[in-house]
Each structure stands twice: as C-alpha cells, then as structure tokens.
Amino acid sequence: MKKYFLMSGIVLFLFSCKKNESIPVEDKKLNDTIVTQKQPESTSMKNAIDGVIFISTDSIKESKELDVQLLQKIAPQLKIKYSDIKVDKTSSISYNDQIVFFIITYAEAFDNKEKDVSLERKYVFANKSDGKILASESDAELSHLEDEVIQASKSIIIKDLIKLNEETAGIAFYTDLGAGGVAQYWQRKFTIITFADSNIKKVLNNYTIGRGNSEMKNDTTDKIETLEAGLEVSKNKTNGFYDLIVSKSFVYEEWNRNGDEDTQGKTKVKKETEVLKYNGKNYTFDIKDKMRFLRNVNE
C-alpha cells in the first residue's frame, strides 16, 4: 500500500436544459437567489445518469472523446496557438447532438528574464458543426508554472452526464493536484459544470473526492492517511436539484522501514457520509474539511 501511495505521489508530480424549474411553495422565498437553468432545447437527457455515479474514484469511466480537427478550429478563436495546446492533457465530451465541451490545457509564456511558462486551463462549449465557440472560461485555480512543485494533472471527464433534475444535465470531471518529496501529498478535486443561458456555471467546484498525506512518526515509521470517496445522486431535491450523497473512507496506516522491506503497523478506518445540497446557486460544502487522523497536515 505504501509503495503504491508513494508511486501515486511521484506520478502526480510528473504529469502533474432547461425550462424554469418549478419551486415548491415553501421555497418561494428563495426566488431571488435561484439561478434558472434554461438549457438548449436539443439537450439530450437520455445519456444522463442518476443513482450511483461511482463507488470509488478508481471505478470512474473516462470520456475518450477528443475531436482534434474541431480543437484546431477552436484554438484561433481563443487566441491560442494550436502548437501551445497540450493535447495529452486536453479532454472533451459531447453535451448533446450539436454541442461539445472541451477542457483545454495550454502553455503560456511569460515575458521575463526567467522565461517562465505557465500551464493554463480553459473550459469551452462549441458547436460540433463549425467549431464556433458558444462560451469559454479560464480556471485560475488549476493554473501553475510548468516547473512548479504542485502540479495539476489532465482533467478526467466522466463519460456520462449527471442528471441533476428532470431537465438539467451536468458535466462532471476531476483533476489531481500533487507533489512528491519527503512529505507525500495529493488531492483529487471534483467539479460539475452546466451550460445554461449560454453561460458556463459551476454548480459544484473543486470538491475533494480523494486525498493523501504522509508524515514521519519517528526515524523508522511513516504515517499515511488517504481519503477515498464515492458519489450517488439522491432522490431528494433541494431548490430544484437532486442532493448529492458522498460516501467517505479515511484510512490511516503506519509503515515501519526495515531496510529493503517495509512492514505495515497500525491501521485505522473511519467512514462518513456527507449530503451536498443545492442552495440555488451551487452545491455547498465545507472547504476547510480536514483529515481525520493526521492532525499536523490540517494546520
């Protein structure tokens, strides 16, 4: 387990629709805060799934779509050279029969003495027929220097849309942030995006569905804690959107270093369930959620 965890840290270091939703009478007072999700009439809900989305992040099935010719048409509209696009870190999915969604990673050089290069992330909805951009948005939270310690991986898009209500489908994806070294660290951030009224909307932004940390207990023992999460769409709604049920498993392990062979020591497991509710604008959660066993990494 430890060797797998350490390898994960090293790998992460290297690659680093709708008509207006009717609102229950008791929620009428929220009218002024609820953003109407009017989606394109052609949005197909037949590919949107509910129920269990994934039981663990390792079980997530990735969208394998990537129309390179369409990407070449999109790049000039964004004022990005196609040669600057990191195709191996770019992903896409069909939103419906006419629209495609891209997560584009591209290099941008700084005009300074150090010749720094940053890797930027941009979300784009475009027409499949001609590549015309319908909406685009940069994500500064996933931007970093090419040689920065904390690196962002390719964003992995789930191959199926998520059914948020009877008329709204969301695109879900996760991105790994990680670093290697003496103290191993990584996080898996999960986001859900909708396309409404020609605007990109993050209804869930950078929610942690995976995490790993380690620290030294003493000269011969390492302490490791990992978080693994599963996701399910509830049958209950809040402000027009289904609640999201997150199952969490925190695993604590101690590993004793004995020359070439490590041996496992103490192990603890803590399981929790969290329900994410839509507040009229987005799904809310505690952004300061902490690890359960390694207290020092929360400081």
Automatic annotation (TrEMBL):
It comes from the Bacteria. This is Lipoprotein. It comes from Flavobacterium hibernum. The lineage of its organism: Bacteria, Pseudomonadati, Bacteroidota, Flavobacteriia, Flavobacteriales.
